[in-house]
Amino acid sequence: MELDRNRWWFVFYEHNIILQKSEDGKLDIPFKAQLEFNQPNPDTIHEYCFHDKYPCTAVKLSTAPAIDSAKYIMLSLRDSFFHLDLWKYQAAGSAQQLIYWDENTRFCPACGTATERKSLIMKKCPKCEKEQYPPIQTAVIVLIRKGDEILLAHAHNFKYEFYGLIAGYVEIAETLEESVRREVKEETGLNIRNIQYFGNQPWPYPSGLMVGFIADYESGEICIQEEELRNAAFFSKDNLPALPQKLSIARRMIDWWLDQQIKKEQDK
What we know:
The protein is α+β, with helices and mostly antiparallel strands. It folds into two domains: 8-103, Nucleoside Triphosphate Pyrophosphohydrolase; 137-267, Nucleoside Triphosphate Pyrophosphohydrolase (Alpha-Beta Complex). It contains four helices and 15 strands. It has helices spanning 77-80, 86-103, 176-188, 249-267; strands at 8-13, 16-21, 27-28, 45-50, 54-61, 72-76, 116-119, 122-124, 131-132, 137-146, 149-155, 166-169, 191-203, 208-219, 229-236.
């Protein structure tokens, strides 16, 4: 199968993306791929322009492709972060979210009728006319300072033995700040103050938006929610446990705090 040379092709099989190897061993998204796999169903091909600048095509394969291992490799989207330019990783995340949304909106949730695609990000029921758009699940994540320490926690759903920040999904009728306070109280028993916005990050696992905040410890003793966490404690910069990978906003926030601590020591 020969694909368009003038578009970036994000080809997925299950949860893996196919990357092309260059002669120097680097990995990249292919412009043109010659792969031995079955022609995808047209419903699994999505053409879009990432950031109104880069023409992209998202493809989901239903059967495992037979690829030349000397030229191509399949990696998880998470692992591709460490090999791709940031915008290409983000575009790949957009591709995966489009595919996920398409696969999960084949039928109308109101009446069960097969939906019709009207645009890249809109489907409509021909019977009851209900419209569907890609949903974004908003979550908050917070770095809590206490003197020269920060609160880090190890959650049950972490795949590896690193410690991260307190996080959780925003609930109905909550502001982002209210969600931060509730998640911290529920998971650790602590009260916080001075909640300030830090930044945000699209999180395509599968369709999230992580909104980061910085806050200060106010009162309380750590009492973890055992259904969510294995452990939580305050750590100084000199006794940090294993940290999240660089692809996450959690790591960006922790690195920001570390920079602040180093500057404080230099200013003494």
